[in-house]
Amino acid sequence: xxxxxxxxxxxxxxxxxxxxxxxxxxxxxxxxxTELIRLRTAQEIxxxxxxxxxxxxxxxxxxxxxxxxxxxxxxxxxxxxxxGSDFGAFYRQLTQQREYLNSSRPTAVxxxxxxxxxxxxxxxxxxxEKRSVAEIVELLHQEAAQIKEEDIRVCRAIGExxxxxxxxxxxxxxxxxxxxxxxxxxxxxxAPIYLGEERGYHFHVFADETRPLLQGARLTAYxxxxxxxxxxxxxxxxxxxxxxxxxxxxxxxxxxxxxxxGDAANKIGTxxxxxxxxxxxxxxxxxxxxxxxxxDTPTGEGINIEQRPAEEVTEMWYKERMAPxxxxxxxxxxxxxxxxxxxxxxxxxGIARAPFTESLAQIRRKKEAA
Length: 370
Ligand code: MRU
Fold this sequence. Notes:
This is Methylthioribose-1-phosphate isomerase. By secondary structure, the chain is an alpha/beta fold. It has helices at 42-50, 57-78, 87-102, 109-128, 133-163, 191-198, 215-226, 239-244, 270-279, 311-314, 356-369, and strands spanning 13-16, 21-25, 36-39, 171-174, 204-208, 230-234, 250-253, 257-259, 264-267, 284-287, 293-294, 334-337, 344-347, 350-352. The chain contains 11 helices and 14 strands. The strands form 3 sheets. Strands 6-5-4-7-10-13-14 form a 7-stranded mixed sheet. The chain has a 4-stranded mixed sheet with strand order 11-8-9-12, with helices on one face. The chain is globular and about 65 Å long. 5-S-methyl-1-O-phosphono-5-thio-D-ribulose (MRU) binds next to helix 2 and strand 9.
């Protein structure tokens, strides 16, 4: 496919039930080539997540959930140590695979959130309800499909809530890609933009290019442009310029993990944008499904920030050097935006505002009561 075909018509993550594989768009090749790849083994799923062929916190979670279903099915079929009928053997083998998948990337909590949800279902069905392995595999299938469906509903609800914060014609700046390509539909930070577009709001979006891997240029600018949204690509060092000119009314970003006090980890550079937005009095909103809120991590200090290979900075993926051989490189994939720089955290259950410890806990209670 060339760039003229619309990327918005593709699913970010899909399960092929006939072929027993996960189908993803290889996002490392976008926007130049749209290639669908199939993941079947634990190693293929691990690699796809680690290599960012599938990326963005919610999409990683959905991929891992489908992965657990497929691996459970394989364990049942292979029947090693009687795992096709003995729950103990089945669970031991599945636990190994779950832990392996969980080691692919550390920062986005949606990965462990989805894996834990699949694990809880498996233990309940096997230990408490004494279901057969075949039944458990089918339940895991349904749960993974449910996680995907929920992601679509949740993103839409974030879009509705986010849309109350802006008005037609506004300028919106975003960083990295928290778009449809990072979720199953709508995105998180882009959901208010897509919903606004449907309703004739005609926002003017500024997409930061997002070094080192250019998710903003390759993915956000690409998907928004394909969807007919008015988007302008800017380099990461231009956000102060467009803000100072008065072109930006609000910033919407996604996130990989929100601590209980509202500190939010997102793509490296997000905290710079938040700091500049504060300087110019521009509201800074973090869009977060509740699956991205980690109540077990009290503050941003406790968030494990992934360190990525130096080559991403010195060569990106093209193997053409952009920096001297042997130079020292620091390449954290994410940074933490302190909660005092955040105007609001937009979730599917409403918008949390300072003090975040209380407002996020209230959102959690709303979710539990739903
Ligand atoms: O390294 P990436 O591309 O996975 O980083 C993605 C981001 O930082 C997104 O903003 C975040 O995962 C939210 S996606 C809705």
